[in-house]
Amino acid sequence: MATFFGEVVVAPSRAGLDEEEEAREETPEDREIRREIEKKRYRQRRGCADEPLVCSKFIVAIGRNAAAFLSSFILDSVCWEVVGVVKLWNEWCRTSSTTNVLPTDSFCLFYRLISDPTVLLCQCSCYVAEDQQFQWLEKVFGSMQKEGLQVTILSTCPVADYKTQESTLTLASPFLKALKTKEFQEQVCCPLLEQPNIVRDLPAA
Amino acid sequence: MFIPCDRGGGSAAPDFKGFTLLMPAVSVGNVGQLAIDLVISTLDMTKVGYFYTDCLVPMVGNNPYATAEENSTELSINAEVYSLPSKKLVVLQIRSPFIKNKYRPFCETLLSWVKSSKCARVVLLSSSHAYQRDDEQLLGTPLRYLLTPDLEKAVGGCMQELKWKEMEKVAAYPGISNTDKILHIPGGGITKLLFTESCSKGIQMAVLLKFCSEGDNIPDAFVLINYLNEWLQLIKSEVSTSNSSTDLSSQWKIPSSWRLLFGNGLPPALF
Fold first, then answer.
1. B103 and A18 in contact by Cβ < 8 A?
2. Closest residue in chain B to residue A137, using alpha carbons only
3. Core-most of A46, B17, B134, B195, by most CB within 10 Å?
4. What's the pLDDT tens digit per position in A69-116?
5. Cellular component per GO (chain A) (predicted)?
6. Of A17, A22, A167, the CB nearest to B266
7. Could B267 and A167 be called an inter-chain contact, meaning their C-beta atoms sit closer than 8 Å?
8. CB contact under 8 A, B61 and A193
9. Exposed, middle or buried by CB within 10 Å (0-12, 13-18, 19+), for B135?
10. Do strands B20-24 and B170-171 pair parallel, antiparallel, or not at all (unpaired)?
11. What is the model's pTM?
């Protein structure tokens, strides 16, 4: 793409292309740095119990708003107990050490309902990077013994991202929308998300 | 990698032996993906499965090809497979960008799936940055094709008859003469990698690409899909005059998910 000054610059593409993916030439130092960062990122640990948890209902809150909703209205120390944690690190964390991290930075906490231990709840308010999402899921779902599992995912998105015929300024917000699999037979408490809206990242994963 | 849809009744996994796999590269303007949307929507293809992969950014939404309330609530994710057995066609649609450093793993897994499912050939729809064309490429058609040696033997003659233009190779070191010529597809995403891997693995692959820029790429998608149709004849033109193959735009069905591509309605208070 040519600019006003006659120089040619690489135009960013909506397709999210990683130009030069093949032509990247790394010095040995670059390679070493990249390897160390990758090791730090892929060291995820599940704390507390390591045997599989039997689960019939799993509620996941992704993002600070959803996690705060659970903290304010659902969680309390009488009915719920902590049963596990997933720690992960990526470049968005404000601490550089993987051992002394702030809880909000890189923890995902798992709670169990004391009166029905097959009901699990997860608060994930840390940022899970694109390339960690799959691993996070495999780790979490891999450590569950699923029996007729019902999963509910709570998340928030900016109203400005909602695609609609009218302007989002005239919409009454906040508002709820849902996506459900065909196996989910119960009544959904709000309208379904219309095309062309989509959900991405960890809630989608 | 490929997970078939559970259609109930204990139906067997779909058989793609001898089928043509049509797929997009995530490339400049998303032209390949838009063209694939037109194919799936127009031919009313049935979803037969999806790819379980960690190579693409996750996304989910409701059915992008919905035509009515009843069929609008089926979930759709980032890499899904559709099939039309009557035309021996299987289509892969990719709906999100690749995660960093995952191009190669995806290509390897995809090509090994192509081999194991015994697809006869792969057709890749792609695009390349228009601003990187050289002086000669600026003139004439913006459409190009590439064939792996194995497919060249089978259909090379067909391309000559259609008077298609093969993608030119460029000098490895521009400005220096007598250097090797290499394939360079800027903005093409996985196109070059998939093509070179297919050449070395003996897979029959054709690449069809259009030079374009980011913007409203719907016209580019129509041009590319009509180009493909000249060869594969996925839809027949209604009028049988000699110029009919150049304007089939009205016969491709635009999916409902193409609404609002450029944003919402405007707030009245703006005026």
1. yes
2. B54
3. B195
4. 998 998 887 888 888 887 777 776 665 555 555 555 557 888 899 999
5. endoplasmic reticulum
6. A167
7. yes
8. yes
9. exposed
10. unpaired
11. 0.86
Indicate the CATH number for domain B16-44+110-232+251-259: 3.40.50.10900
CB–CB of B159/B242 below 8 Å? no
Q: Do A196 and B260 touch (CB under 8 A)?
A: yes
Residue A11 to chain B, least CA–CA distance (Å): 8
Q: What is the pLDDT confidence band of residue B175, given thresholds at 50, 70 and 90?
A: confident
Closest residue of chain B to A194, computed from CA coordinates:
B62
* Domain carrying residue A121: 38-157
B62 vs A21, A170, A195: nearest CB: A195
- Answer whether residue A54 is part of any domain: yes
**Nearest Cβ partner of A195 from B64, B192, B263?**
B64
Query: Nearest chain A Cα to B216, which residue?
Result: A14
Q: What is the mean pLDDT of chain B?
A: 88
pLDDT value at position A166? 79
User: Nearest Cβ partner of B259 from A21, A166, A196?
Assistant: A196
Q: What is the pLDDT of residue A48?
A: 47
| pLDDT beyond 90 at B250 | no
B57 to A8: CB separation less than 8 angstroms, yes or no: no
Q: Is residue A189 part of a domain?
A: no
A27 inside domain:
no
Instruction: Report the domain count for chain A.
Output: 1
d(CA B59, CA B57): 7
- Domain membership of residue A179 (yes or no) is no
Partners of residue A180 in chain B, C-beta under 8 Å: 73, 75
Q: What is the DSSP string of chain B?
A: -EEE---STTPPPP--TTPEEEEE---GGGHHHHHHHHHHHHTTPEEEEEE--SSB--EEEE-TT--SSTTTT-EEESEEEEEEGGGTEEEEEE-SPBPTT-HHHHHHHHHHHHHHTT-SEEEEEEEEEGGG--TTTTSS-SEEEEE-HHHHHHHHHHHHHHT--BPPPEESSTT-TTPPEE---TT-TTHHHHHHHHHHHT--EEEEEEEE-SS--HHHHHHHHHHHHHHH--S--SS-STTGGG--GGGSPPPGGGTTTT--PPPGGG-
Grouping H, G, I as helix, E, B as strand and the rest as coil, residue A99 is coil
ipTM of the complex: 0.79
List chain B residues with CB under 8 Å of A164: 260, 264-265
Q: Break chain B into its structural domains and give their ranges.
A: 16-44+110-232+251-259
